Amino acid sequence: MQGHGSGRRAAFRFRAVGVVLLVAHLAFVCWLTLRPITVPWVTPATFEPLASIRADLERGTWEGVRSIGSGLLLLAPMGILLPLAAGRVVTNPVTSLFRAVFAGAMTSLTMEVSHSWSTGQVVNIDGVLLNTAGVAVAHLAVVPAVRARLRRRCETPGPAPLLREEGTQQVTRTIPRVGVAP
User: Fold this and answer.
1) SS3 state at 161
2) What's the rounded Cα separation, in Å, for the pair 45 and 52?
3) What confidence score (pLDDT) does residue 13 get?
4) Per UniProt, which keywords does this protein have (predicted)?
5) % the chain with pLDDT above 70
């Protein structure tokens, strides 16, 4: 059991780092997206899926790529930071993906609804779709590979058997003990 203590401390540190980075990222995203913007006019709220993406692509390829890219990248780190904060190395990959995508979708939906309270911001359903897709893509691109690497790294050969045979007699392996101080 002595070797497990450092592994638990390392897992706790990874979780703590994941939680701190997740909170910092979400604070930055909230500041970035929910601050008031001064604009001469405000477009109406868009509840038709893919309507604003089509409009951005009609304005030009560069505008469409910029809009789609910013939507995908805004919450993409959540797809990596949520599993890091959870600290599960051995888990069902589909369940992990579902958890991350669901949390990303709910965060994005909350942000989009909060836009209606901010000056110059409007609700756009395409933002929810792009943010959720960004979380899914980041999760699929990074988390399974990192978990596989961590599982390979943590795999150690099993403990030596307590009994072994030498010739015809069995010898019991002795386990060194730490003495107790007086």
Assistant:
1) coil
2) 10
3) 85
4) Membrane, Transmembrane, Transmembrane helix
5) 78
SS3 62: helix
Instruction: Read off the pLDDT of residues 62-121 as tens digits, 9 standing for 90 and up.
Output: 888 998 999 999 999 999 999 989 888 888 999 999 999 999 999 999 998 888 777 777
Tokens (6 digits) for 133: 């897709």
Radius of gyration (Cα) for the chain, nearest Å? Answer: 25
CB atoms within 10 A of CB 117: 9
Tokens of 107: 């965060």
Is residue 179 pLDDT above 80, yes or no? no
Taking the alpha carbons at both ends of the chain, their separation in whole angstroms is 23
Q: What is the 3-state secondary structure (H, E, C) of 127-160?
A: HHHHHHHHHHHHHHHHHHHHHHHHHHHHCCCCCC
Instruction: Write out the two tokens for 149.
Output: 């690497």
- The span from the CA of 162 to the CA of 153, in Å, is 25
Name the 3-class secondary structure at 46. Answer: strand
